[in-house]
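Mods, move this if it's the wrong board.
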Amino acid sequence: MNRGLIIFFGALASLLLLLVLLAQTGILPVRGAQSAGGGVAAPKASGAAVLTGSTATGGLSVSGEGVVSVKPDVAVVQLGVDVTNPSVSEAQGIATQQMDAVLKKLKSLGIADKDIRTIQYSVQPQIDYQKNVLTGYRVVNVVQVTVRQIDKLGSMLDQAVSSGATKVQGISFTVDDPSKLQAEARDKAIQDAKAKAEQMAKTAGVKLGKVTALSESGGTVPYRVQLAAPAPMAKGADVPISVGESEIRVTVQMVFDIE
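Not the wrong board. Structure tokens:
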């Protein structure tokens, strides 16, 4: 036999033997290998975990909502002055004078310094773009006022406008200390979620296990009333304000194991 053929067949036999050894050790997967049940056997890795039960399915996830209605006890209002004048110094001087009078009136009504905060102060040139000339300057000074004696809000607004305020940008009503009401809303949200989970489990024919995840969102929901700067009311009359109700809303997300 040709020496070259002998070398070729020897190498081929060595290669086949190597492939057999690799397949036996699991390093080389055997395509089409079947399990005893007739299906294709998946290769097994040492220490591999098998997902079962709720870990594989993700469990049962539900959301619940709790709402508590309450009459607000705090109002937050933004008010200030808006002055336009050909002279920037005159505009600033008038705005300062008017705002000083407004702040003095607010403090005389029992509004604490901590409840008055400047949120806007701007000086803007006013230009006639058709003629391309400067016509004056606009000065805006706005403060945010927290009113804790909410029953006096109407009177406060009337007196602030009478003192020189020309801007009332809106009123928000909320609750000063919502912690207890949030706890009540949270309890309602959890009970709502549990009731939903129990109903779903019963209908699906499964049994609820332990809670595996729980999260919360929500809080006080203030509402805003848009109110333009009112004209000064007749003596003895106040700006009419309807407080209504505010809501504290809490939403929870719960995940239960399924047994």
